[in-house]
Amino acid sequence: MANSSIETLWDAIVIGTGMGGATIGYRLASQGFRVLFLEKGRQPVADASDGLAETPQQRLAAGHWPDRITAEVDGVVSELFAPLGCGPGGSTLIYGAALERFERSDFESVPGLEHPTGGWPISFDTMRPYYELAETLYRVQGTSDPLSEPVALPHPPEASTQDELFMRDFRRAGLHPYRLHVGIAYEPGCQECLGRLCPSACKSTARSICLDPALERHGSELLTDCEVTRLIATADTVTGVEFRRGNSTAVVAGRVVILAAGTYRSATLLLQSAGPKHPNGLGNGSGLVGRHLMFHASEMIAVWPRHRGSLDGPRKTISFRDFYSHNDKRLGSVQSLGLSATYGNILVFLYTWFDTSWLGWMRPLRPFLRIPALIASKLFGDATIFAMILEDFGEPQNRIVPEPERPERIRICYQASHDLRQRASLARKLLRERLSKFRMIYLLPGTVNFGHPTGTCRFGHDPTTSVLDPSCRSHEVNNLYVVDGSFMPSCGGTNPGLTIAANALRVGDAIGRRLREGEL
């Protein structure tokens, strides 16, 4: 451990190097500020194509979160491996690279569609220039959604013939498909590397796009294998970040501290950092830290093509938002996962179902799922897997549950609302009606998407109903910011990654102004 890293008073300490942390750290470093990144994971060294590894060492080596999380969902307690990354780049190491904007209606009420929270404390127009910056930075390619505001993006290479035929037949069914917005450069030999490490810089990860340039070009420093244990604070200022690295514990100090450890861990760290001035957790005067946890409800659907074509070429290509809302109901988007209904993909889905059901405690039965997976792969043949992403709304009872005896573990309590179940049923009905001429089957209807957590440190104007102010600074702690998915008061109907990156750029500019003006 470098003594200089510990002894330096950093301009900014960034905890976590995923989409939020790496992006904001890069933004500050490129403005000339001294940035220290603290990362729980280590440099991945293995091929992550096998996402079924179960030992912490194997998982860390492959860029996955090392431990199972404990999830009580609708009264059923299970322990499972959430689709989370761990290491420099965070979850972007293994994400599917879908980088899509939220709609204007996700920020504010629009005619015929009231916002469930009354609206975000910033407008869509405030976020728009940062969306554009994030899309350029993360090399996003795609085409405009015919039903949304136009987006100027580089056009991606031609999709596989099979996906082009899907898009043609979807249009004939009355849908409005467009090329999914993805952070993939499509270099020669690109295999898209969805859900696994990319061996090159073809997939736009937070590491390749932001973290490495911050370290190599702008003098930032990175400490890996750091388990941050608490933030040390006075009444209104974080004075130190305590972490464990190997067998030693150290404290570093910065003018500003930025939490980007992920929706699960950022809230947990604030609760772990209780002290005399913050007895309920750091910055938790509202009592809302860790609450209003949201997930997208994901429907995995196998759809058989009406006309067969070659699978050669890009497959993460199709999206449509025809059911983003319906009448006054907020639903979501549908996108291709870039996956066929092969044995390995089906087995992963079955493991997810098993681990989150009451059967999860009967672990000796788990290996036998290989049999139905093999049978299903033969029956499904050339089906393509699509996902419907449905918006969730934050409820205070859905929360992170601290475990004082095991503070490094993630435990959540979540109850799907009656409203969410009704909206999911409506979305399925609408999709079946529109795709009535297609053969299709739901693989995992109504699954909680543990890879899309948001909302546990929501931002807003009122300190009694939010944790952060509109600049994502703690209402109570002058130099503490949170820039992962925790800040969202609603989660939209599509992947949160681009919105997290755009917000990190926005907050980075706000912090940069304060640092230059001597406010921090």
Task: Provide structural commentary.
The model has no long low-confidence stretch (mean pLDDT 90). This protein has helices at 3-7, 19-29, 56-61, 124-137, 161-172, 206-217, 263-272, 343-356, 370-380, 418-434, 497-516; strands at residues 9-15, 35-38, 69-73, 76-80, 178-179, 221-223, 227-233, 238-245, 248-259, 297-303, 318-320, 325-326, 329-330, 332-340, 384-390, 399-400, 411-414, 440-448, 480-482. The radius of gyration is 22 Å and the shape is globular. It has one domain (3-46, 59-341, 382-516): FAD/NAD(P)-binding domain. With 520 residues, the chain is an alpha/beta fold. A hairpin with a 2-residue loop joins strand 3 and strand 4 (76-80). Strands 1, 2, 6, 7, 8, 9 and 19 form a seven-stranded mixed beta sheet that branches. A six-stranded antiparallel beta sheet has the order 5-11-14-15-10-18, sandwiched between helices.
